[in-house]
Amino acid sequence: MHSSAEIRTIDGKQVVKIEITRGSRRPYHLASKGMKPSSVFVRHETSASAASDEAIRQMIIESDGTQYESMRCINQSLTFHETTQLFEAEGLAFEATQQRTLGIINSDNYYTNLGQLLADQCEHSIKAARYSLFLTVSCFLFSRH
């Protein structure tokens, strides 16, 4: 966060004015609770209220952009038991280093939406197919009569 403080005289009294500007990695939240309304608050003048799921999503978009896979996932309590087993079956490591390389964890150590797609908590069906492609090039000669 970026902040500044100064002493001002207002009505003959010295007061401390503290100004805090908006940071770039919103939403700010309690790490122990994750990015959900019970731990993300929106300030309105002198009061604060819980942020809605939509407000949280908008703050993530403003901070991370709109590339779905690299955006921070709202659920930061992900597990990867099944994915780890699949990697191990292929003789591949699936530790934090590999998860960062693959984009499952971002540079701020948050899980991304790509991570959610590979997590045990994924609610989506993912289907993939692998095809062998044989390219046949045929040349045809056409003649005009």
Describe it for me?
This protein is of the alpha+beta class. The chain has a domain at 67-123. It contains four helices and four strands. It has helices at 53-64, 81-89, 96-102, 113-118, and strands at 2-10, 13-21, 41-44, 47-50. Strands 1-2 form a two-stranded antiparallel ribbon. The protein has a two-stranded antiparallel sheet with strand order 3-4. It is elongated. It starts with a strand and ends in a 27-residue tail after the last helix.
Give the SSE order as H and E letters: EEEEHHHH
Number of strands: 4
What is the overall shape?
Answer: elongated
**Major beta sheet, strand line-up:** 1-2
| CA-CA gap between termini | 79 Å
Low-confidence stretches: none
Number of helices: 4
Strand content: 15-25%
Largest sheet geometry? 2 strands, antiparallel
Please give the share of residues in helix: 10-25%
Structural class designation? alpha+beta
Query: What Rg, in angstroms, do the CA atoms define?
Result: 25 Å
Mean pLDDT across residues: 81
InterPro entries: Schlafen_AlbA_2_dom_sf
Protein name: HTH transcriptional regulator
Organism: Planomicrobium stackebrandtii
Summarize the structure.
The protein is built from four helices and four strands.
